[in-house]
Design the sequence.
């Protein structure tokens, strides 16, 4: 690419060189100028110039030489000492937020994605949209306060929510929480932050999180099943999230609309009447009774499992994933993985692997954090000029 650049492309060439150098630095520990020259393939004067600029922005710091294997800095070496540099991950921070029906969860991390703080707060299911957003802002403020991080130091925020979310962050359909359908969640939250805010469906973020740090590491064709009162799913195809044209891909919970007799409150009933109230505590009781040998509860659980498998099988037949990760009511599902595997083998042409989610209750917030980290990396390694100035890193 560089050999086709003209004199007018010097600024582009500088951006390319800076991106290459920063990527090499961001890989991990402190490195020398000589190592950077070797890692990037750039000339020493070019690397020196790039490093000088990165130090000025606060993204890179010069550090003392780390101890050598014998514990003595520079032992056995002569001549001018090497200069060592590191990426300043603490130059900025990112947030991953889950706005759930029953709780708000926020995770704070540095620019390398290392978690430096988190906070969780239960909320009432009956909260209206304004009250829920107020709770979100309060939990964010608490996380930042405890970590001693300024709101101005945030580079990106990822947010997960139940429902169908369009690319601008509007909840097109969200029946789980009052006042959520039609809410421009992106616009509302962007008023609270001076950085990019990305809104995404919770099951989609769970799929991203498990692929990043959970049960789906190394698998690029993945279905994550959020086994809740209305099951949903997120899918990765070739390692990339598949949202669908309008963001509604994976909404397998809508399949119950094909027949009212297969709604969760009927499937999980142990009395012949619809389960009321239909909430996670009531479902947990049914699953617990089934594990303890209660025959009626076992029948109810079997009905629910059959319906779940049929929904998942439809998605498996459509995209043929390598792996299905099951989350949501993980504590109650660990005993049904084998039946899931067996039934998927009967209902599909090629049975995928089936695994329990590894990230537990933080899976959605971790997926939101990964989306925020992707946004940061896009800023850090951008070659083309951004359409808007990103938040400046602070030294």
Sequence:
């Amino acid at each position: 690419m560089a050999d086709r650049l003209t004199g007018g492309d010097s600024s582009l060439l500088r951006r390319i060189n800076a991106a290459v150098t920063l990527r090499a630095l961001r890989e991990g520990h402190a490195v020398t100028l000589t190592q950077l020259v070797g890692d990037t393939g750039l000339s020493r004067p070019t690397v020196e110039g790039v490093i000088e600029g990165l130090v000025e922005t606060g993204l890179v710091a010069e550090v003392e030489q780390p101890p050598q294997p014998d514990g003595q800095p520079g032992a056995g070496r002569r001549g001018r000492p090497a200069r060592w540099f590191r990426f300043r991950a603490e130059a900025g921070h990112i947030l991953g937020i889950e706005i759930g029906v029953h709780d708000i969860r926020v995770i704070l991390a540095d620019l390398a994605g290392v978690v430096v703080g988190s906070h969780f707060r239960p909320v009432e299911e009956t909260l209206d949209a304004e009250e829920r957003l107020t709770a979100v802002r309060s939990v964010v403020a608490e996380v930042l306060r405890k970590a001693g991080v300024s709101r101005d130091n945030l580079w990106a925020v990822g947010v997960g929510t139940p429902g169908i979310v369009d690319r601008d962050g509007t909840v097109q359909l969200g029946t789980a929480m009052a006042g959520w359908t039609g809410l421009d969640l992106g616009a509302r939250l962007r008023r609270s932050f001076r950085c990019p805010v990305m809104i995404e469906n919770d099951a989609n973020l769970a799929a991203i999180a498990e692929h990043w740090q959970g049960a789906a590491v190394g698998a690029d064709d993945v279905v994550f099943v959020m086994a809740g009162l209305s099951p949903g799913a997120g899918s990765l195809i070739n390692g990339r999230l598949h949202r669908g044209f309008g963001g509604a891909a994976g909404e397998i919970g809508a399949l119950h609309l094909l027949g009212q007799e297969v709604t969760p409150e009927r499937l999980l009933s142990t009395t012949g009447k619809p389960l009321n109230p239909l909430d996670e505590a009531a479902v947990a009781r049914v699953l617990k009774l089934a594990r303890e040998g209660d025959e009626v509860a076992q029948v109810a659980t079997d009905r629910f499992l059959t319906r779940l498998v049929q929904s998942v099988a439809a998605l498996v037949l459509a995209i043929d994933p390598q792996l299905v990760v099951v989350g949501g009511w993980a504590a109650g599902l660990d005993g049904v993985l084998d039946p899931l595997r067996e039934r998927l083998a009967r209902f599909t042409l090629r049975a995928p692997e089936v695994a329990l989610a590894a990230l537990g209750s933080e899976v959605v917030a971790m997926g939101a954090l990964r989306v925020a980290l992707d946004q940061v990396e896009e800023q850090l390694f951008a070659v083309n000029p951004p359409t808007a100035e990103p938040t400046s890193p602070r030294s």
Remarks:
- Residues 1-9, 385-395 have pLDDT under 50 and may be disordered.
- The chain has twelve helices and 15 strands.
- Residues 149 and 347 are 51 Å apart (CA to CA).
